[in-house]
Amino acid sequence: MNDTIISVQDVSFTYEEAAEPALSHVSLDVKKGEFLAVLGHNGSGKSTLAKLLNALYLPTEGKVIACGYDTADEAHLWDVRQAAGMIFQNPDNQIVATVVREDVAFGMENLGVPHDEMVQRIDEALEAVRMSHKADAAPHMLSGGQKQRVAIAGILAMQPSVIIADEATAMLDPSGRKEVLKTIKRLNREKGITVVWITHFMEEAAQADRIVVMNKGTTVLSGTPREVFEQVETLREIHLDVPHMTDLSQDLRKEGMPLPAGILTVEEMAEEVCKLVCRSK
Prior knowledge:
Layout: E1 4-13, E2 23-31, E3 35-39, H1 46-53, E4 61-66, E5 69-70, H2 77-83, E6 84-87, H3 100-111, H4 115-128, H5 144-156, E7 162-166, H6 174-191, E8 194-199, H7 202-205, E9 210-215, E10 218-223, H8 225-229, H9 232-237, H10 244-254, H11 266-280
Parallel strand pairs: 3-8, 3-9, 6-7, 7-8
Antiparallel strand pairs: 1-2, 1-4, 4-5, 9-10
Helix pairs in contact: 3-4, 3-5, 4-5, 5-6
């Protein structure tokens, strides 16, 4: 059984009047239920890729198949955008109504969802992102993290198979980033929604099932977070860092501390240091 939900097939994309392509011969498969992080610095092509995945852009060359639909097939444009919902960087740009409940309804209205079904979906979506208590609030009174969770609810109400988050935490403070990523991870785990998480934050990428690293419009690394972040020198060559604990563990190994490779989090570092302390007693 084919478990690929998005297939990017030798795709290139060039903006009008641009001298160089933003993407060059990129191929990538995303599996059903996967949490995939796409990592890269500004100008690497990661946001262009995100917009190609739900037909906001169409490939200059190659093909994108999203949820069984060719994104270049105009007859299925809205099928693609319903199945592969997009969350953008600035939550304020996604708010279209003066009441949270009405904002969540907006996408469904465009799809012609019957009113009774719409009401049920709104309630379920707000419950899923834990914003039911703000259903009748004015969006402009919410925090940045809360606004982004409302945007996620609007996508959820359309019942997507995939959520594509294009730098969805870039404009949030650390607390907001944490709450939005926690929400997305829970939806991925509990509802089986496939996630494509576009980011430049190393600690966010470290929580994915798999990471694809982009540079100058091409993919340069792919693997689990441990596999990717072990390539410290390669990442630094393309001006990317690694998670703080990975960096620290490498420095400590150089000083002779026998730590294993692949440490990503504070919890993992604490566990390994405790092991060393126990052995030394």
